[in-house]
TrEMBL record:
This is Aquaporin. Belongs to the MIP/aquaporin (TC 1.A.8) family. The keyword Iron-sulfur does not apply. The chain crosses the membrane at residues 14-34, 40-65, 86-108, 135-155, 167-191, 211-231. The lineage of its organism: Bacteria, Pseudomonadati, Pseudomonadota, Alphaproteobacteria, Caulobacterales. Gene3D superfamilies: Glycerol uptake facilitator protein. It comes from Asticcacaulis endophyticus.
Length: 238
């Protein structure tokens, strides 16, 4: 019976992570695809932030609402999850992001005037001439590392046992929104390899060629933050 309960528990977490990442991509990238000309940068930033807030309170009690491989890596390094759970979380998150992107493609394909995903995009991340503000690779890499580091510091700090109960979702969502406000012109903001993977697979071309940066940079930023918590440098001493 114990084995069955453990299996059911991890499957519940995996399902929660799948749904949460699906919602993040649908809300955030959906704001780019359907409403960017109306809501602008601020509206897109709020959409990503609200997706996190909604899922934090919707699935947080089930899986912790990582919905981001970088967050899971930070939690792993900080000693808050097992390697087995980390692997399962990442798979569920990537599948959820792909499903979210597929949903957006299915909806936008019904646009009567037509919509070429490869040309008009799907909220994919990128850098260089012709993307956003035209920032170079070095700037994009630096931004993603530092932004993810900040994001993980907020996540690991606000979810610590000594932090006020009930406010983590709001703090994390607002932080993600703030990161998007400043970073959308630079990379479109990833800080989440799964969020970048889903749209890139459907857009292809340059989005897929540049995907490596939105995997490597967020993981570096997350590892740095996780290490600070692992060694107690960002935790109060008794």
């Amino acid at each position: 019976m114990r084995v069955i309960n453990i299996r059911e528990g991890i499957m519940n977490k995996a399902l929660a992570e799948f749904i949460g990442t699906f919602v993040l991509v649908v809300f955030g990238c959906g704001a780019v695809v359907f409403s960017s000309d109306v809501v602008g940068v601020l509206g897109i930033a709020i959409a990503f932030g609200l997706a996190i807030v909604a899922m934090a309170y919707g699935i947080g009690s089930v899986s912790g609402c990582h919905i981001n491989p970088a967050v899971s890596l930070g939690a792993l390094i900080a000693g808050r999850m097992t390697p087995r759970d980390f692997g399962i979380y990442v798979i569920a998150q990537c599948l959820g992001a792909i499903a979210g992107a597929a949903f957006l493609v299915a909806v936008v394909s019904g646009k009567l005037g037509g919509y070429d995903v490869a040309v008009e995009g799907l909220g994919q991340n990128g850098w260089g001439e012709g993307y956003g503000g035209g920032y170079g690779m070095a700037a994009a890499f630096l931004f993603e590392v530092v932004a993810t580091f900040i994001f993980l510091v907020v996540i690991l700090g606000s979810t610590h046992a000594s932090s006020p109960v009930g406010f983590a979702g709001l703090a994390i969502g607002l932080t993600l929104a703030a990161i998007h406000i400043i970073g959308i012109p630079v990379t479109g903001v990833s800080v989440n390899p799964a969020r970048s993977l889903g749209p890139a697979l459907f857009v292809g071309g340059q989005a897929l060629a540049q995907l490596w940066l939105f995997i490597v940079a967020p993981l570096i930023g997350a590892a740095l933050a996780g290490g600070l918590y692992r060694f107690g440098w960002l935790q109060s001493k008794p």
